[in-house]
Amino acid sequence: MQLKNYMEDLVWQRLDEVMVANPQACNCENCRYDIAALALNFLPPRYVVTDTGETYTRIKALESQFNIDIVTAITHALQIVSSKPHHYAGKN
Ligand SMILES: [Zn+2]
């Protein structure tokens, strides 16, 4: 048995569509991780116990419940990261 913050998976699943919707934002690995981390800080953690038959149904329910919040949080994170990307930090 394992505990897992399923919100993390949901954020990674949605990240690509937010990047596509915001082509002006940098899509490098650095920025993607910064955006995912920041978005997760805006969102409530959703821990699930893995290795049980029940997990999948619970996850599906969470997914529809949080979809809009997740996209909003990622978009917000993207705007913050884009305004001050870490990959430029060494050059300033
Ligand atoms: Zn970048």
UniProtKB/TrEMBL annotation:
The protein, known as: Late competence development protein ComFB
Domain of life: Bacteria
InterPro entries: ComFB (IPR019657)
Organism: Sporomusa acidovorans (strain ATCC 49682 / DSM 3132 / Mol)
